[in-house]
Amino acid sequence: MINDWELYVMLVPGILFFIIFKYIPMWGIVIAFQNYSPYKGITGSEWVGFQHFVTLFHYNGFWLLLRNTMLISFYNLIFFFPVPIVLSLLLNEIRATAFKKFIQTVIYLPHFLSWVVVVGITYMLLGTQGGLINELIKAGGGTEIAFLTTQEWFRGLIVSQSIWKEAGWGTIIFLAALAGVDPQLYEAAIVDGAGRWRQLWHITLPAIRSTILILLILRMGSVLDTGFEHIYLMLNSTVNDVGDVFETYVYREGLIGGKFSYTTAIGLFKSFVGLILIMGANWLTKKFGEEGVY
Q1: What is the pTM of this model?
Q2: Number of domains in the chain
Q3: What angle separates helix 205-220 from helix 260-287, to the nearest 10 degrees?
Q4: Span 69-92, pLDDT tens digits
């Protein structure tokens, strides 16, 4: 440490960041076991044990919240997660460098738009009053479709928006993994008579398999996190039964209702479920002989 003290000094800002913004706030978890009062503070509030967790599990809408959250996360896992992988494989096959960079730039751009803008574009396209898609349907002699107020469309729209906004950005990690593949492997495969599909199946996919598994394991940890802003902006009274999730419920009960202890208990419950899923997914991955997160 004495010889390389300069390198250790460079670690200080990162260490301070994690201590101040990650570890110190963990102390706030204790209010999940209290009837927290901002006036009494954490040390002066009454301890109630697991009362808030019991209240959550006995809440009439708990299973509705859990079902909606799990279904949206499941759809994202099935439909959204593979898209960056497919895009990365397609981009990796492009040999014209200029065209490849242009495509990458185009698919990266939606990531930098806020969900407010994305949802606004959705309303402009799919709204029943002046929405472009419905105007085209009516111009063709059809009947307008209430995309934004029909329960059957809600989850599909949520997943589609996530794919459009984040799929391009998600290719960065996979493209970085593909950049580390030894070109000699492809040359040897060509000599052996392997076509593009054989190269993809036997070289490219195995090269990024560990990356895919690690990202999948980490994604399991956020299975109960669907993104508050996105869901909240798309919610309305007609789709509440299929779109109300833990984040929107926490917003109503915590920020609007002032039930800080109760909503902290909900957050702790979500984190505990995420931890169990990460550990389970990591165990299964290592059980099948692959490299896990730890």
Answers
A1: 0.86
A2: 1
A3: 150
A4: 999 999 999 999 999 999 999 998
